[in-house]
Amino acid sequence: MILTSIINIVYIVRRSLATHVIDNRTQTFLNSLEENATIKTSKKTISKTDQHFERTYKTFLHSFVETYVSTTQNRTITLNYCPPVPPNLQGSLVVNNVPDNFSIATNSSYYPNVELGGHYHPTTCLARHKIAIIVPYRDRLDILKHFLYHTHQIVQRQQLDYRIYVCEQAYNKTFNKGIVMNGCFKEILKLQPDTPCFIMHDVDLLLIDDRNMYTCPIFPRHLSVAIDKFHFYLPYTQLVGGVLAMRREHYVLVNGYSTNYWGWGGEDDDMYARIVNKNLKVERPPASVARYKMLKHTHQKLNPSRMKVLRTAHIRIDSDGVNNVKYTLLNTTLYHLYTHFLIDVGEEPK
Ligand code: BGC
């Protein structure tokens, strides 16, 4: 009887496993069960299992496997939080060239831990912060490649639960960063509604000190304080362009970015006006840490009327932004190292 039971356990477990995703520990455990059973059964010929017996044990084993799997999963859930200060930060960093065999179109062997769509979370501890990195983009493939190659390793060392979203403006129309950011923000919330923290990140900026944490403190935080192009000095105190971290509720409170800036510049200055108008402060990490290298590229067409539009920033806050942004999402593609949104911003008003 005992012998028959063991054989049945093994048989039914194997069958029920076909419909379960079992982790390695469970598999090892089940293998050892099977080995024990084999040793015992080799001495005697086994009679055929009757239907009733199989049904009874199937029910029993099903619940056993469920319990075992959920116990092992719960064990993952009860991981400790990652330390407040990530232990493997390196501080000041050198920017390396992108290896020739690094591709962003196919699976990258450089980042085996990154899941499809550019998502990563630490597996040895529970991330303290979940973030979405929004990268507005158009037509700079080499720069994007460098950005992804460089940035993934840093945010992994920061032990964040992160996902990189590349938000590309479609067609050869005047760039409108505000619409691209707002559209991207909305699309991210459709995919990942619980995302609490957004890092708006220019694609041409590479962080060169990993102590500059990509997290969202209680106020919006301007992260790109010291850029090599500006000799590592903040050009003016109202600047929030480059890299900006904002909680979801703050982004909604300020109504996201203005959609009225066509061409390069201005939308970030408008964002500053929104932040202070809603009684938020802009905080900054020390310039000794918030350091960036700007990659060289050809610049977008400057928006000559940006200063004029900026003059009306305070009166447009609630009527021009993420609450009424118009765009068309043409495509969503999950690449290994990023989620790609292709966004049509429509026509620039004449
Ligand atoms: C533009 C901003 C830009 C800043 C720094 C300003 O003139 O309006 O959009 O971030 O210069 O380059």
SSE blueprint:
Layout: H1 2-17, H2 24-41, H3 51-77, E1 119-120, E2 130-137, H4 141-157, E3 161-169, H5 177-191, E4 197-201, E5 205-207, E6 221-222, E7 226-227, E8 243-247, H6 248-253, H7 267-277, E9 291-294, H8 306-310, H9 313-316, E10 328-334, E11 339-344
Parallel strand pairs: 2-3, 2-4, 3-11, 7-9
Antiparallel strand pairs: 1-3, 4-8, 5-9, 6-8, 10-11
Helix pairs in contact: 1-2, 1-3
This protein binds beta-D-glucopyranose.
Beta-D-glucopyranose binds next to α7.
What features would you describe in this structure?
With 350 residues, the chain is an alpha/beta fold. It has two domains: 2-78; 119-344, Alpha-Beta Complex (Spore Coat Polysaccharide Biosynthesis Protein SpsA, Chain A). Helices cover 34% and strands 15% of the residues. It is built from nine helices and eleven strands. Strands 1, 2, 3, 4, 6, 8, 10 and 11 form an eight-stranded mixed beta sheet that branches. It has a three-stranded mixed beta sheet with strand order 5-9-7. Strand 2, helix 4 (141-157) and strand 3 (161-169) form a beta-alpha-beta unit. Helix 1 runs antiparallel to helix 2 (24-41) and helix 1 (2-17) packs across helix 3 (51-77). The radius of gyration is 26 Å and the shape is globular. The chain starts with a helix and ends in a 6-residue tail after the last strand. Mean pLDDT is 85; it is low at 7-46 and 63-75. Bound molecules: beta-D-glucopyranose.
